[in-house]
Amino acid sequence: MPRTPDARTRRRGAAGMAALALAAAVTAGCASNPVSGRREVTLMSEAEEIAIGQRGDAEIRREMGVYHDEEMQRYVSGVGERIAAVSHRPSLPWTFTVLDVPVVNAFALPGGYVYVTRGLLAHLGDESELAGVLGHEVGHVTARHASQQYTRSATGSLGVLLASIFVPGVAPFSDVASMGLGTLFLKYGRDDELESDRLGVEYASKAGWDPESVPRFLTTLSRMDAMTTRGIPTWLSTHPDPGSRVDKALPLAAKAGEGPRERHRDEFLRRLEGMTWGDDPSEGVVQANRFLHPDLRIALDFPEGWEVQNSSDQVVATLEGEKLLMLFRAADTARGASLADGAKRHMRGLGFTLEQGAEEPVGGINAFVGLYKGKAKQVGPVRVRAAHVPIGRQVYLVAGVAPEAQYAQVEAEFEAAVRSFRQLSSSEATRVRPNRVGLYTTRAGDSWQAIAQRAGKGLVPATRLALMNGFAVNVQPPAGSVVKIVTEG
Ligand SMILES: [Zn+2]
Fold this sequence. Notes:
Blueprint: H1 14-24, E1 29-32, E2 39-42, H2 46-64, H3 70-85, E3 95-99, E4 106-109, E5 113-117, H4 118-121, H5 127-142, H6 145-154, H7 160-163, H8 171-179, H9 190-206, H10 213-223, H11 235-238, H12 242-255, H13 265-272, E6 276-277, E7 285-287, E8 290-293, E9 298-301, E10 307-310, E11 314-318, E12 325-331, H14 339-349, E13 352-362, E14 365-376, E15 380-391, E16 394-403, H15 407-419, E17 422-423, H16 426-430, E18 435-441, H17 448-454, H18 462-468, E19 482-488
Parallel strand pairs: 3-5
Antiparallel strand pairs: 1-2, 4-5, 6-18, 7-8, 8-9, 9-17, 10-11, 11-12, 12-16, 13-14, 14-15, 15-16, 18-19
Helix pairs in contact: 1-2, 3-5, 5-9, 5-10, 9-12, 10-12, 17-18
Bound molecules: zinc ion.
């Protein structure tokens, strides 16, 4: 959900990105690969790579949000620029951005746009690991992996770009599709990943960092369970099989040059201290099936057991294996219209017509609650329970969408969720705080379990604490070492 209560009327969409990518890929040519030097058929010039990267960059910044810490951004850019300078394509307009996203991920767009999440930073052990990750992503760009995939999809082997939009059709569904930014997250092949690992070692080493960082962080990844994706792929889903990559990267790192092997562990950990961990309340917090937005002062309980995904402009809840959907977002209703007219017009714009509805209180606020019908691609006829709830100058939409045949079964759950919409008191709102990364100096006899409970107040389990510090949970940290913990904000 947005940081401000302004309605956002932008038309976003993965479909737009895919169309752009395909449109850009019309001028065929042959060029030599900057890394391998081999000639290869490419449908994309460097200028087109940059243009696609630029468009994708705008989408990513808007959709995922940039982490609001200038100093951290500058620091990560500095490390990235040192890497880019020793890469095969130093003259690309490189940018390195920390995204305000709690999942562990890093990715790159054609043209030199590289991203790491704050969730990934929290799992790194030192600066050389950051250099290794950035080196890997820079490698995807310099070796033109994404460009080659765009090329291949345009030449007809597989609609990589379009195939990843999983539920197109009626507007709320296409919004869900674009929320995952499916088109941007091309899965690289195994060879591409290994080449990027090799380039990560090469670049980090050339730029003066310890190249052992690459297998070291791959080991951390191999320990990581598949994490909740929240609509955004984790590193694991875009970078498969980290375990065997460790075996490949180890000898490469050992062979890498004789130069300096910087790690800067202490300085790196000090930079991480205070960084947001988990959800950032300024965009709303998900606690199990509950969504809380302390700035907007609103809360909503989705049905129990549903997975709730918060993105920058809406909250979506789904039940695994079912074509059911609930969503919560600011509604773009026509100004000056009555609540009922505005609601009807809004829903008509999304492809739904009103069957019955009335003004009634939701969370003590006079709202328009209606039952609508319409069609969704790949779902067929659907029914929608929707409430339009005005707060100040903003109208919020809370809606449940189900296939017609299934609607009666879930109506009570939809109804309860819609009715749970409420305003938070100021004291409730101020109690919603993000957790942060803290530092802790271990004492003799400390175990991850003890640290998690005592210093970490049980905010994250011992396994997570060990993982974010580069340890297996059954290997205890030596006394007197500084480790990361998660603390209350
Ligand atoms: Zn990769």
